Every structure is written in structure tokens, then in C-alpha cells.
Amino acid sequence: MLTTHLGTDPYGLLVSGVSESSGLSYGLANAVVGLLLVVAWCGLGRRLPGLGSVVQPLVTGATANLALDLLPDAQDAPLAVRIGLLALGIVTMGTGAGLYLGAALGPGPLEGAAVTVSELRGWSFARVYTPLLVVCVVTGAALGGTLGAGTLVAALCLGPLVEAVRSRTDAGGAEPPVRG
């Protein structure tokens, strides 16, 4: 999504803003923000993180810089191609997040916050996740991240998409245990 120059995903915008304002590389900022979010929702929901909750920000943080160096820049591609790549990125991200939530190996940083709040409040995942994505957009842009139209599309589409995929792949709701 980053290489389309139409915007990134909302969480990516937050990470980009943290990177821009702190001087950290994008990958390191991703790992730091991710791990801080995991600690926060674990405390809020009195939930132990799953393996995926810890591995996801570390692996993503470690590979983000490499991927950005290896992927071709689509800035000069026709707009229709860039929009198609953006749509593919949104669908891939939403499907991937829904699949790993459904596998019950532990939610990612932002998804874990949404799962925790949705369970505490009795709300649907999308009802919580979409406003969290909007907070990521506002905060990331305020910290100096580059906001694009694609970011806003992703903020509105990812919650329902993740929820739809998760509902079809749920492994029996086996989330990491809640501490007593």
C-alpha cells in the first residue's frame, strides 16, 4: 500500500507518524508501537498475549524495512494500477488479520485492543476496530505521517472485512486465557 502513494493502512500511518517524529526506522517504530499496544490491552482485559500477539510486531517490524527496500515504487504507474494495488493491499490485510484472529493464536497489537474492548463492552469487532483505525489516522497524521485517500478507505473497510473473515474462520473462539 505504501508504494502506491495513495496512502497506507491506518496502523501503518500511526507507525509512520511515530517514525517521523522520533527518528526511529519504520520497522523499529512498528515493533515499539506494537509491543506497547499489546502490553496495554493485556492489562486492560487482564488477558495473556498469545504467541501471535508477541511475534507479529517483532516479525513485522523486522521485515518492514526490508520489504520497503525490495518492493518497486508504483508512484509513476497509472492511477488505475495504483488504485488496484491499494485495493489488493486492503483486501490482503483484512483477510490476513481475519485469518490470524480466527486461528486464535493471539491477536495483533491493534486487533487485540479491538477484541478486548469488544468483549468488555459486548460490541461487534468492527464497531470497535473502525474507530480505533480512525484514532490511528488522526494520531499518525498529527505526528507527521502522510495521509492519503487510501488511508481513509482502509479505515472504513478493514473493520467489516476483518470481522467477516474472522467469523468464517473462527477456531472455536479459543483466545489466550484471561488472568483471574
From TrEMBL:
<protein>
    <submittedName>
        <fullName>Putative membrane protein YczE</fullName>
    </submittedName>
</protein>
<feature type="transmembrane region" description="Helical">
    <location>
        <begin position="79"/>
        <end position="101"/>
    </location>
</feature>
<dbReference type="InterPro" id="IPR038750">
    <property type="entry name" value="YczE/YyaS-like"/>
</dbReference>
<keyword id="KW-1133">Transmembrane helix</keyword>
<dbReference type="Pfam" id="PF19700">
    <property type="entry name" value="DUF6198"/>
</dbReference>
<keyword id="KW-0812">Transmembrane</keyword>
<keyword id="KW-0472">Membrane</keyword>
<feature type="transmembrane region" description="Helical">
    <location>
        <begin position="132"/>
        <end position="158"/>
    </location>
</feature>
<feature type="transmembrane region" description="Helical">
    <location>
        <begin position="23"/>
        <end position="44"/>
    </location>
</feature>
